[in-house]
Amino acid sequence: MPHESPGSPPSDPPGPDASRRSDRARRAILSATRDLVAEVGYTRLTIEGIAAAAGVGKQTIYRWWRSKAAVLFDAILEVNSHEQGSVDLPDTGDLESDLRLVLRGTVAALAEPANDRLQRAIAAEIQTDISVAEELVRRLLRPQLDACAARITLGIRAGQVDESVDADLAVELLFGPIFHRWLLRTGRLDDQFADNILALVLKGLRPH
C-alpha cells in the first residue's frame, strides 16, 4: 500500500473540473441567447445583455465567439441537435418512410413555441442583413437540404425516383410549402400536413 514518507506534504485534493465549468458557462450563454433574441429581437441583442443573462463576463463570450451572430447560430444549432456539416438522414431503404420522418421532425421543430419565436426573430433579421442570411443558409439550412438531396439521389439509384429528377429541386418542393405555411401562418403545422406534402411530391418523383 503506497504511503507518504515522513515530513512529505499531504496530497492536494483534486481541483474543480474546468471542462465542466466551461461547458456549464457555454450552455448558459446559448440558453440566454435564445431567450433574449426571442424577447427583444436580433437587432437589440447585445453581447453585454447575453453576458448579464448568462451570469458570465463579456470576455468569456468573446473567447469562444467573434460576434453575436456566431453565438446565435450556435444557439440554434444546439436546439436542432447537429453541428455544421454533420446532418445525417435515415436510410432504411424506404425513401418515403425516411422523408416522412424528416418532414415531421421539421414541422415539430417549427411548431415548438420557444423555437418558433427564435426562428421568427432570425427570419425578420435576414430580410435586411445579408450576412446573417448567408450565415443561416451556410450553417443551418444548407447542411439539411444537402442531406435530403443526397437521400433522394440514393432513391434515384435504387429506382424509387425517376432518373430525370433534380434532387435539389425536389428538396425545395418538399420543404417550401412547410416554411411558407409557417412564415405566413396560413394553416396548421402538423404531421398530417407533412404527410400530405410528401405524398403529393412523391407522385411527381416516382419513375414514369
Characterize this entry briefly:
The chain folds into two domains: 58 residues, Arc Repressor Mutant, subunit A; 111 residues, Tetracycline Repressor, domain 2, CATH 1.10.357.10. 68% of the residues lie in helices and 0% in strands.
Radius of gyration: 23 Å
Uncertain segments are 1-5, 82-86
Sequence of secondary-structure elements: HHHHHHHHH
CATH H-level superfamily of the largest domain: Tetracycline Repressor, domain 2
Shape: elongated
Please tell me the CATH architecture of the largest domain by its name.
Orthogonal Bundle
Count of DSSP E strands? 0
Content of β-strand: under 5%
Total helical elements = 9
CATH fold assignment of the largest domain: Tetracycline Repressor, domain 2
What does this structure look like?
The protein has two domains: 19-76, Homeodomain-like (Arc Repressor Mutant, subunit A, Orthogonal Bundle); 95-205, Tetracycline Repressor, domain 2. The protein is 68% helix and 0% strand. Mean pLDDT is 86; it is low at 1-5 and 82-86. The protein contains nine helices and no strands. Helix 4 (68-79) runs parallel beside helix 7 (130-157) and helix 7 crosses helix 8 (167-184). With 208 residues, it is an all-alpha fold. It is elongated and about 60 Å long.
Write the topology of this structure.
Blueprint: H1 18-40, H2 47-54, H3 58-64, H4 68-79, H5 95-111, H6 113-125, H7 130-157, H8 167-184, H9 191-205
Helix pairs in contact: 1-2, 1-4, 1-6, 4-7, 5-8, 5-9, 7-8, 8-9
